[in-house]
Amino acid sequence: MAEKVTIATVARHARVSRQTVSNVLNAPHIVREETRQRVQEAIAALGYRASQAARQMRTGRSRLIAVRIEPTRDGINGSVLDRFLHGLTETAEAAGYRTMLYTASDTAREIAAYDDLLSAYDLDGFVLTGTHHGDPRTAWLAERGVAFVTFGRPWDDPEAHPWVDVDGAAGTGRATGHLLARGHRRIGFLGWPAGSGVGDDRRAGWREALRAAGIDPTGLDRETEDGIAEGERSMRDLLATDAPPTAVVCASDSLALGALQAVRAADPPVAVVGFDDTPVAAAVGLTSVSQPLGDAAARCVDLLTAVLDGDQQTPAPVLLQPSLVLRHTA
Fold it and tell me: Which Pfam family is one of this chain's hits (predicted)?
């Protein structure tokens, strides 16, 4: 029978102390990168599996975090959260955590899910997505001393809690700048109704880029709920104006796909840019703003680990930069 692989076995293989192996398993951030990598290589080579029960007894943690699966919508923008969840699960596992998924159709049901989950499981913390103004979820968790981080800013108070976000204004600003460089001057915007933190941020990037170029954005944007049909309807409305846009930036790929349908027969052609760089955007050749979702997921795990390790100061927020993926439509 093969000898059981223990922490001592890993320590001998990696030429480190047993305490260093334990630190790599339970508090990897305090171990030098070179040493951590050597220990992780030894763990992989030997096939070591830590006892979850023993680890929980030592650390007082379940090594279990929870994150919500968004309800399915049009199958396009939902893929954005799917990519984030994959990145979160993989990064959490590398840090010694398991991810529990749950679903809820609205905020009230999500808070009810917190109550149920915390009663049934010994969760270490939550990663929240889709933050908005007056978000009651963060207040509920904070009042009960439950550890959490958010993928999305606390729009009412940037210092309220640890968060990771992508700079949406920079993304739409970059898209607008690209269209300006291509010679466009009447650049429209299709976005969500005012009051959405994410939507307002993306609209602001477009607006400020136009103003910086000396262009008045008045009358060039439309507000609508998200969706392909809504994007097509809003784009047709813009095209029917006395001075229709020659290009449009959209707050999502769903709106952009609708806009593409509306401009199909436009002469001269109208450039279209989406947001989120979904697989559908790649398939149809849609230029789109891409979010670094893998990096965002990894940083969420880093921040949550810091909170769980008892950092005295609130970890600094992380604002990541998106990129513009150029394809046929702009």
Answer: Peripla_BP_3
* Residue 206, CB-side half-sphere exposure with 13 Å CA sphere: 28
Measured between alpha carbons, how far is 76 from 280 in angstroms, rounded to an integer? 7
**CATH number of the domain within which 108 lies:** 3.40.50.2300
Domain range for 94: 64-165+293-320
Residue 72 has pLDDT above 70, yes or no: no
CB 95 within 8 Å of CB 124: no
User: How many structural domains comprise the chain?
Assistant: 3
Look up residue 322 and give its amino acid: P
Query: Distances in Å between the alpha carbon of 170 and those of 216, 230, 314?
Result: 19, 24, 25
119's CB contacts (< 8 A; 6+ apart) are: none
Using CA atoms, how far apart are residues 206 and 226, in angstroms rounded to an integer?
18
Pair of tokens at residue 135: 């978000």
* Whether 278 and 212 share a structural domain: yes
Radius of gyration of the chain (CA): 23
Q: Look-up: residue for tokens 């150029």?
A: 326
Whether 233 is covered by a domain: the verdict is yes
Instruction: Give me the sign of the Cα torsion angle 30, 97, 22, 14.
Output: negative
pTM score, two decimals?
Answer: 0.79
What separation in angstroms does the CA of 304 have from each of 66, 75, 91, 99, 131?
A: 11, 29, 12, 13, 16
Which is more confidently placed, 125 or 71? Answer: 125
**Using N-to-C axis directions, what is the helix angle for 33-46 and 18-26, rounded to 10°?**
90
Given this model, what pLDDT does residue 74 score? 63
CATH number of the domain bearing residue 27: 1.10.260.40
Beta strands in 120-277 (DSSP E): 125-129, 147-151, 163-166, 187-191, 221-223, 247-250, 271-275
Asked if 42 and 114 sit in the same domain, the reply is: no
Q: What is the per-residue pLDDT across 152-176, written as a single tens digit (0 to 9) for each?
A: 999 999 888 999 999 999 999 999 9
